[in-house]
Fold these 3 entries.
Entry 1:
Amino acid sequence: MIELEHIKRIARTSPSKIVLMIIDGIGGLPHPETGKTELETARKPNLNRIARDSVCGLIDPVSPGITPGSAPGHLAIFGYDPVKYNIGRGVLEAVGIDVELKAQDIAARGNFCTVDDQGLIKHRRAGRISTDKNALLCRLLSDIAVEGVEISVLPVKEHRFVLIIRGQGLSPDLTDSDPQQLGLPPRKVDPLSHQAEKTARIVNEFLSQARNRLKSQPSANMILLRGFSRRPDLPSMSEIYKLKPAAIATYPMYRGLARLVGMQVLPTGDTITDQLSTLRRYYADFDFFFVHFKSTDSLGEDGNFQAKVQAIEELDSALPDLLSLDPDVLIVTGDHSTPATLAMHSWHPVPFMLRSKWCRRDQVAEFSEKACLAGGMGRFSALEIMPLALAHALKLDKFGA
Amino acid sequence: MIELEHIKRIARTSPSKIVLMIIDGIGGLPHPETGKTELETARKPNLNRIARDSVCGLIDPVSPGITPGSAPGHLAIFGYDPVKYNIGRGVLEAVGIDVELKAQDIAARGNFCTVDDQGLIKHRRAGRISTDKNALLCRLLSDIAVEGVEISVLPVKEHRFVLIIRGQGLSPDLTDSDPQQLGLPPRKVDPLSHQAEKTARIVNEFLSQARNRLKSQPSANMILLRGFSRRPDLPSMSEIYKLKPAAIATYPMYRGLARLVGMQVLPTGDTITDQLSTLRRYYADFDFFFVHFKSTDSLGEDGNFQAKVQAIEELDSALPDLLSLDPDVLIVTGDHSTPATLAMHSWHPVPFMLRSKWCRRDQVAEFSEKACLAGGMGRFSALEIMPLALAHALKLDKFGA
């Protein structure tokens, strides 16, 4: 397996353009009545046209049998081994609301919860308070001042928030305050290393003040913190691949992930048509574009087979706008499967196609799970995608003399 | 590549059942007259039926070109990298006669041999003495007493035995006494570390007493020891996978291997029908069953093509009893190939199929080497089998958020 450091040594800039379209959760399973997957059911002449001009295959985002979360699935496609580059829960939560973390910031995932008279946890989610109420309480906690650090408490959704601590000499090496069990008191956090002692003091002081400020609340009268973490030290895509990369995504989580690997996030609208207009607008300014299509995953998670089929058809009908740009390399794949029959992310491998003047086409004539199995790439690791993209764009030198 | 430590973090218990059937040495090569392999020749409607409902593929137990012994082949399927987890020769010999080793026991593989008047090795196997004679001599040696340790000498077959030393402060870090060459004297063993000095003294004292006790024997007048080793420190399947695993095997070697990874070994009879009755009897008590079918390998090693075909047919006709249990995940594969034409274990990849409500079926309609090549799993490492089994049984959480 080639490592990023090897790629870095042979990557070179060139005017060629790469477009990577990630259709979130695109892989599926057959509908029990028809025996056809979502992709096999959808009318998708443009995706099939691309397949005929491509080398196709099936990717394992992490490895066979492993169901990827959104972050590991995307990191793998961007070429970063998700087993090696682990993103902490706190950072992921911050990324998910599109917060830009500085390198030294400490982030934690927070829950508002309910404790009883003796301080024991009664509801881990404070009865799922409203997002509006959440925002109000976060403002209350953001005022807390602790020795020389800057504290932000940012609402996510319902009972969830992100705590960000900015300052000197901090470390994320802390235990959770969340015991993840009812009937226990929220814990103090403990330092897991000498370097984290000061941070532990700060967090425990924050927790104690938070308890005071919330004590009169009817349900959200305490907080739970977990997943203290710092932005992972990912080498940027421009550093490794010598690319000038841009992201066109409608959901904050994917914009955040793109930022972590050094992509510039472009302003765009809510629909795939908006996203492809953005692509056209900025096409001259970058040489790598990540275009993220979300609804296939959401509808798969809802278990709505027919709506996922329609989302594929909606995407397909927008594609001529992309095809008219005729990128030197066009890749279409997904970060994982989300079969509507399972109604969740799954471990099944994901259809993949790469179209380029220099690809060795295979016999695949349809973009689907079954058809791609017979493709020229066979079944392979998502970590190979970036080297393939660069190679077909003639952006990689020979390895060795 | 996902490691056991990662699997451990995402494994969860659930009521679903996994049955793993290992058909020993199942892979084959074409008969020169018919051009068909053993599997392709056999009438096997039930295996083919399972194939049609499965995702199929071909596994490499160790890696392409590598012929696995029984231990590495099985360890890999159980998810333990056989390159990382090496089982010493002495331990393997003990496992092969179903001896339960304690963690600190030292085991060595022994040969009875013949030495001449000058003490030089004349026959490395003492002319392959009978197993009965072997048992008699082992009793003679088991009486030997050496400073504060407990010594067992257990017969295997013909000239082979296992030496087990139990006591405090021992180490397996010793050279062999067996020079593996004729015309040389048996060696004293040397310690390879400071910790092994005491053990070396004990073994050399044992060797010297054994020489005395055997000197009047006509052929088996000395012994050779090699492969001093200790039970490998394998994390158990229940620890890693959160399974409650059981083994149903007729041969001691496979029961021993199963025990090494923490399976409970169930009492069973000699035939596959007995084994499947055992499966039914204990079906409620465990959630993972390893069923081992041996004769395909033995008959392949005998070079008996037709008998291996019949063994496959015998297995196939017993399968309805298994299928009526309808396990949530049913896997059928082998630990290596044993082509009758080669009459030995071989390096050829092994047919694999996994049947589950949640598998993505492929076009494979027959359980054979050629047919499985077109399967949805393609060609893959046996180390992926356990993650796939757990995934399809819905016993794995998402990796990362």
Entry 2:
Amino acid sequence: MDQIKVIHWGLGAMGAGIARMVQDKKGLVSVAAIERSPAKHGKDLGELLEPGRVSGVTVMPDFGSLSPAVTGPADIVLHATASFTREVVDDLIAAVEAGLNVITTAEEMAFPWAGAPEEARRIDQAARANAVTVLGAGVNPGFVLDTLIITLTGVCERVDAIRAARINDLSPFGPTVLRTQGVGTTPEEFAAGVAAGTIVGHVGFPESMSMIAKAIGWRLDRIEQEREPIVSATYRETPYVKVRPGMVAGCRHVASGYGEGRLLIRLEHPQQIHLEDVATGDFIWIDGRPPVAVQIMPRYPVGSAQSRSSST
Amino acid sequence: MDQIKVIHWGLGAMGAGIARMVQDKKGLVSVAAIERSPAKHGKDLGELLEPGRVSGVTVMPDFGSLSPAVTGPADIVLHATASFTREVVDDLIAAVEAGLNVITTAEEMAFPWAGAPEEARRIDQAARANAVTVLGAGVNPGFVLDTLIITLTGVCERVDAIRAARINDLSPFGPTVLRTQGVGTTPEEFAAGVAAGTIVGHVGFPESMSMIAKAIGWRLDRIEQEREPIVSATYRETPYVKVRPGMVAGCRHVASGYGEGRLLIRLEHPQQIHLEDVATGDFIWIDGRPPVAVQIMPRYPVGSAQSRSSST
């Protein structure tokens, strides 16, 4: 079997985790690596991932600095730099115009038409013109609260409504993720953070909902999102945060998608450190013929993303 | 939206259930119907499904009796006549050569290369030559113990082994299904029926296992199947069978797929009437990175297939 020649773009916690996985896969070989951070330029990719494991691939600062002798025979870019389509659109189009397929971890790219339709159109057009594919992939968005749900509806004669919940534990995460979920704030600070846009909750609800609606053939008229503080009754602590009783241990982010005159999709994603009285899990309920109830416990872990906080 | 023009082939319990569903779907329209049973020839398809609901489609005895004016503009054949590839191969190729896509309920067609590789090759070749697709679809095989499992592995870095169980209730089924599962036999009769091939258990394990192995990249060296009687401790009864204590209430069919020097896949499908002490459910465990444990309760119902016994 010919090995698939991979270019790594982005070597933060997520990108490095992906690159580490590629080193262990028989069918894949790393042929180039790009990372913005100057501290990594000129380093050997293998050494960077695991001291002593020389790969012969030198980390470069940007796509333009790669030789056509490298990009020409390469097959795919694994891209892991940022969350939003507008932040990654230029990277993706540069790769596509070099004739490369792309998989990106950018959350919005799971369904870019939801948040950035003009950029989605440009990427789609460039990919078609160059006969390559661009996929936004991830555990969530990209799988648990959208692709998996769509798959589960595949044997339903009729789907009337969908509800799903992903209950996870933020304890392994670093300060950036904890901050974006409001962990360690007071309820007042939490409300102010949500209003200011610094406490964002989960990135991906409009993407997951739009993907589901398109697959089922529903027209969504509006998507409402609520971010509520999970106020702790107990003392909880991680290496990065201390939460006293009455303080915020996480964010309960809920999205509701309305259309066809009713509530069609409701997705819940409570994220906190050290859960009280609940177990982590992924839950999906399809109201239809037949009805379907699925439980995944413990939840799908976020894999390489566990330590992503260090890069985002 | 243009409606998809459907030809129904087979109007037993399963085919009639499918046809009934098509009548309720906005995107589909029935343009022809074929049924071997002479009692249905010349009848109106709508009337046959629901008295008073005239469709204007007359039930014909075979594919050859359909006018090219009907098959020409049609898009797809929904085929529901039998379980085994060798029983349906001629039908499928006739439809394909008329330029029609096909979805068939034949269990073996979920992955025909497992049980009938030569027929699979012929169907594949004919479909490619006519630029149409042929899909073997069903709840099981076709979804719960194969497609869904493959989907769930999609976010695994590594898959080491797979185990799944589908625990269902045969109480709604008719005499033919009950007989093929040995319900109502003595343990001695059950053993004799398995040896004689009249008690078959589930049709589809080699198909599901081969499909999973191909998706993951495993080479299966052998598949072992065991069919054990579920001996009842209590009196159980349905309109079609009476099971006294000590008699057989169903068949516990287990398949094990070996390869790469170990047990790779184990699928269990205990089927009985009126379960004792267990609930129905579909269960999937993926041993890998990450491990995944999924529970669907109650199990995916078999939908139109519930009453299939009357036709098979």
Entry 3:
Amino acid sequence: MLRIGLIGTGTVGGGVIAIIEQKKAEYREKLGIDLELACICAKTDEEVAPYKAKGYTVSTDADAMIANPDIDVLVELAGGYNMPRKWILAALNAGKHVVTANKALLAKHGHEIFPLAASKGLHVLFEAAVGGGIPIIRSLQEGLVGSTVESLSCIINGTCNYILSRMAQEGLDFDTVLKDAQRLGFAEADPTFDIEGIDSAHKTALLASLCSGHRVDFEKIHVTGISKITAQDIAIAKELGCTIKLLGIYNRDGDRVDARVHPCFVPQNHLLSSVNRVLNAVYLNCDNLGETLQTGAGAGRMPTASAVVADLVSLARSIDTGKRAALPMGWFNVENSATLVPISETSARYYFRITSRDERGVLAKITGILAENSISIETIIQKDVNDPGNVSIVVITEKVQDCRASKAIDAINALPEIVENSQVIRFLA
Amino acid sequence: MLRIGLIGTGTVGGGVIAIIEQKKAEYREKLGIDLELACICAKTDEEVAPYKAKGYTVSTDADAMIANPDIDVLVELAGGYNMPRKWILAALNAGKHVVTANKALLAKHGHEIFPLAASKGLHVLFEAAVGGGIPIIRSLQEGLVGSTVESLSCIINGTCNYILSRMAQEGLDFDTVLKDAQRLGFAEADPTFDIEGIDSAHKTALLASLCSGHRVDFEKIHVTGISKITAQDIAIAKELGCTIKLLGIYNRDGDRVDARVHPCFVPQNHLLSSVNRVLNAVYLNCDNLGETLQTGAGAGRMPTASAVVADLVSLARSIDTGKRAALPMGWFNVENSATLVPISETSARYYFRITSRDERGVLAKITGILAENSISIETIIQKDVNDPGNVSIVVITEKVQDCRASKAIDAINALPEIVENSQVIRFLA
């Protein structure tokens, strides 16, 4: 029997309780395991009242619940940083396993949490933290162990993918879609965390850690969000046979790790390009396995709760029949932070959208700067814009190192004819 | 330490040996497990000679190897039915776990193999048997346990998908592409097993068993292959915004199981429609998780070998640190065969392509027969064909039960104007 102490009765916590109630008998019969909700904990009496009424043991004192020897595993679904960090460390110190969906916490405090768990031989499971409904953590830890992941590209923020999909499908601009997404509940009132790529970076840090076998610190990941993507960028992408997606990217690079989050031009024949709206997807390229894609719901009450319950079932199976070494810790060295490839050393094909006054000689100056920086041009298109007197100049470069692309675009932005800072977006391939 | 006895040094067997050699040190260091190739067995001295030269213990006597107490797990990669069945049963009787990629054997003899393993508390792992590079078995057994699979549609035969993809992309007919596929090694000299859907049915039986929790017997699954799909069918599908795919299908239907294999019209906005060439894919609809798709290499030396090795790693992790109940058996009742929904009771939208002499009144007769069988017509298109004096009449029906569709098409085929048996293809949705 696995005795569960649950903190958080909100969206996901409530879903976890519902699934355990729904599946408890099936798990007992088919798998011989017993998931027991030993204590349900939330901040207020009001929050736990409905569960108390159903006969559950409830609490508003998380510390006491964690200290209780009758709990085997802490399921932390409260969200936030400070209290969950304290609870999880206390639970591990008290010899309890941990299941959480809190990617922000793991990305930020994983360097404390994972080593402690490893030293105690305890599990910290977090399938629900990345790509809710996609069993990607389990795939990386178990299904794909016969291969080494060479590269990973993922769409792991539903809000961003929803906004970019609707911009592409309806030709709308960013602010219009964001407002509508907020109205419909697909974006938060303060959307910064999502649209600036921070949430994607948390998840990318976890995936890159599992892929590389080294701890990848979230703070070291280069992040560019989607708030500066315009309807024009998306229209031009379409003309070029691409869609724009916010991607989390990992590449194996010798002993170093290339991990970053930024918008990308994705060719329409790539599997990721047709992953739309709130769907998430993880695309992997592996040495033995080749390419593989997993798509599914990235968030939402039941998909996320379902992933939490899958972790609880795994845990119950492991510890019911004899301890086995905790899995996730085996897969990356939690003590030492990986060395990341600086973004300036990465290479890509680039899209520059340069807005300039419509004056003679600008094109010559731009191509001159590109030539000075040894950047080969694949395509150059001049476009009229609604703004009279101005033009858009779109440049697609051949593959070039970021530092040269940056230097060139800084020089271009400094030209007197340039009206605003140029848009810079990388191609996925 | 997991002591492995391997039978079969062919494509996949050789790949397994290569991956174990490549990853052995990494597994020891990161996971604390040791995969030891204790004995490599093949039919002839010539086959095992290269491994003997490398210092491995080799054998040409599978029975003796299986009887050897120094073997913990039999890895059966020989292929075929009779000998592998005998070996696997002998291994289980001798208390050894089994890992195999032999879907045909499991589909045919699973009713002997699984109960024996269950009664002995042993594992029979077969990740490599379905969708080689896609960790779908593990997902169904572990990652998705928080949900119930309501329906599954999968592309799980690379040969068929390759042929259909090239027919669609190049407008070629079936025989031309098949010959080219044979020349290129994507189809066997005798392609019956693949193109008639038998291989897909083996895999669908396994997936339907895992989804339903009941043993689904391969022999009871309705199977239609792709050999009668014409370039014209594919062209018409494209006009209708669809691609034709050979699908393995599972639907939960109360206590019964709807499992079948047949070509389908798949709408181009469905995730499965862009899975092309030899790629495989499994699309699931789950109660809590919603929709999810996994795509990857379906076959090939290293993807398949990689899946076998993932099973060996799971096994080593389980048995190194204390026995745990064998997993797969928990998930379906191997004793009792599931009751299947007869194909005649299933419903779908239908595509009929009727070839008729170009005579007045035929359309009236056809629509009359459809009306008699209470079949509503969604679209009806008359098409000229190259054959002078004949026309093609394409009917798309609304959703109708198979028995009514069959009765109508039999009546249509019996009309004196009808030149050949009509083509009948279901829509996925």
